[in-house]
Amino acid sequence: MKSLILSLLRYISLPFALLYGIVVAIRNYFYDSGMFSSIEFSLPVICVGNITVGGTGKSPHIEYLIELLKPAYQVATLSRGYKRYTRGFKIADANSNARDIGDEPFQFKAKYPSVEVCVAEERMTAIPQLLQQKPYIDLILLDDAFQHRTVKAGMNILLTDYHRLYTRDHIMPFGLLRESKKAAKRAQIIVVSKCPQDLTVEQKSKLIDEIKPEAEQSIYFSSIEYTRLYPLSHTSVSYDEDTEILLVSGIANPTPLIEKLNKEFKKIYPLTFKDHHYFTFDDAEEIKEAFHNIPSKNKIIITTEKDASRLILLQEKFSAYELPIYIQSIGISFLFGEGDAFNEEIVGFIHGIIPPVEPEIGWENDVENTSFDV
Q1: Residue 247: how many CB atoms within 10 A of its CB?
Q2: Rounded (5°) CA angle 4-273-228
Q3: From CA 234, how far away is CA 211, in angstroms rounded?
Q4: CB-count burial class (<10 Å; 0-12, 13-18, 19+) for 290
Q5: Which DSSP state fits 52?
Q6: Mind listing the domains of the chain with CATH numbers?
Q7: Residue 92 and residue 259: Cα distance in Å, rounded?
Q8: pLDDT tens for each residue of 114-171
Q9: What is the pLDDT of residues 199-220, one digit of tens each?
């Protein structure tokens, strides 16, 4: 019955989707025809975005680019700062927190202190402000700005989730597309993200046939890699395959992480919140009670990096509870040995604007510093 009601509601939304699609199409036509102007900047600007509502793995791909580029360039990231409590242009500093700048920008700053992280609703005016205050910046990574056409990025990287390709979706609210599938043509690079690591060459070919990239577009396939567990709290304990886990998550789709942890630990108790949820004192009490209700004495709490950036806002509360909280970090890897080709394409774009510099760009396996601390 519930599924029938949801189906009816979805089809009722079809006229609104058609209207929304027409409005977005007219807007894009004005930009494509030059009636609306986009500003280009003299330094490299790389946009990582999508045309689908929901998580496609933008943050780990931004971090991949940071690690690739920061050995040779002064890198800045520019985000909207989704669900932050402030407005306007802000540059992160040592005193910033998730409420000030948003959870994902705070995560970037915590992991990469030498990178300039800023947030603003209007990218067009934020970039000149950033360059005025930080004139040494070499390049800017735009986070989730594919639809913000007031700025013309020199390179657009479009992400699409393997499990819900944009080619199989529809415009909002009938589907989850922010704009027409044709918008993908604006990208120079398409990345099919969150692929299974055992994706076959045959499956890859079928996906390429479905996406039908333009002749000048490159297409890559990436997979999420769950890397290390590291402590968030001062209370740390040993753990092994017999440990039971309270998973605290407020992310769009915790299912892959739950599946991963189920393979490594005895039992998982998911405690889920809405995406980008700001934890309250009541939530802290709920987390404490859920942890103490796990019957095993061999137990820990695991959370994600994005959630950790919001949990530390209740630092004093969790310190008093003396709970063993660990962070599961994630990264991405490119399948079929195509990581070098992706790196070369990114570096080639930058070298077209900035002459090559020494030392040569290379991958850094370790983050500079992780300042999450409860």
Answers
A1: 21
A2: 120
A3: 47
A4: middle
A5: B
A6: 10-224+332-351 (3.40.50), 226-331 (3.40.50)
A7: 34
A8: 999 999 999 999 999 999 999 999 999 999 999 999 999 999 999 999 999 999 999 9
A9: 999 999 999 999 999 999 999 9
